[in-house]
């Protein structure tokens, strides 16, 4: 557990295990604590690196407006802090967007990239979803009902009632009732409004795994399919009967796909 600085702000990170470096980039509501159940497996043969973006978790707040370019510099600063020439990146949702912007600017620092539930742009659909989140911020239950149910597939949400009710109580009683957290969520959401790298991705050669969920209502699978088309050196997987929160709905597949892709000795095998 340690800190480094970016633009005078403290950024929290932690490392676990040894081996090929793998940095996990959080979704918008996540923090380093969100990866607790994955730490042991992800650090078994890799050096697992967790980081809180600015305005997340134990990193500093940013009270002036910013874009995701600031978070790109957080990732760059982290790699410099750890002294790596190349790393592997896993990004989910917001973290995947930052990862895409990162390879556009610093492709030479990335070996392999894994993206779950990630879009190459903030579409009008996604922009309006973000606006709805921010408009509901004044009431914890309103915010929960606006943001959380659509993150999961209907089958998962309905099947795991006890877990979802416990999560509702935790989030509405504490997290979504915390003004500082909600102010950060608004800033994080706004920071992604202008995300669009469709032109910049042309010519990117980083070996990339793109994973969609069949029932992703936040970043629909069509967005990842287009991303697969844009990234000429990418592979594509669709998770059936899964929602936007794929890491929670399909933890075994999330782990196996990531570690298999990152640690495979050769991803260019051919029988021809």
UniProtKB/TrEMBL annotation:
Top-rank taxon, per record: Bacteria
Domain AB hydrolase-1: 20-250
A GO CC term attached to the entry: membrane
Keywords: Hydrolase
Pfam family, one: Abhydrolase_1
Molecular functions per Gene Ontology: hydrolase activity
Alphabetical list of PANTHER family matching this protein: HYDROLASE, PUTATIVE (AFU_ORTHOLOGUE AFUA_2G14860)-RELATED (PTHR43798:SF33), MONOACYLGLYCEROL LIPASE (PTHR43798)
Protein name in UniProt: Alpha/beta hydrolase
Species this chain originates from: Proteiniclasticum aestuarii
């Amino acid at each position: 557990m340690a800190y480094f600085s970016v633009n005078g702000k403290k950024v929290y990170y932690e490392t676990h295990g040894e081996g090929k470096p793998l940095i996990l980039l959080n979704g918008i509501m996540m923090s380093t604590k969100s990866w607790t159940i994955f730490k042991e497996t992800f650090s078994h043969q890799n050096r697992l690196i967790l980081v809180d973006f600015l305005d997340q978790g134990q990193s500093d707040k940013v009270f002036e407006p910013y874009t995701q370019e600031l978070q790109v510099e957080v990732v760059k600063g982290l790699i410099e802090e750890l002294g790596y020439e190349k790393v592997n990146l896993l990004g989910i949702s917001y973290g995947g967007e930052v990862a895409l912007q990162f390879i556009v600017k610093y492709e030479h620092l990335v070996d392999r990239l894994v993206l779950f539930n990630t879009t190459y742009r903030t579409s009008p659909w996604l922009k309006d979803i973000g606006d709805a989140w921010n408009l509901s911020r004044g009431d914890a239950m309103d915010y929960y009902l606006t943001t959380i149910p659509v993150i999961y597939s209907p089958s998962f949400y309905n099947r795991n009632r006890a877990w979802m009710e416990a999560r509702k109580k935790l989030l509405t009683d504490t997290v979504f009732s915390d003004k500082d957290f909600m102010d950060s969520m608004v800033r994080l959401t706004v920071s992604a409004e202008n995300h669009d790298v469709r032109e910049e991705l042309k010519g990117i050669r980083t070996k990339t795994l793109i994973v969609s969920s069949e029932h992703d209502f936040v970043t629909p699978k069509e967005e990842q399919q287009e991303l697969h088309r844009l990234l000429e050196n990418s592979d594509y997987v669709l998770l059936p009967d899964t929602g936007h929160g794929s890491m929670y709905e399909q933890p075994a597949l999330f782990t196996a796909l990531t570690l298999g892709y990152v640690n495979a000795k050769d991803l260019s095998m051919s029988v021809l």
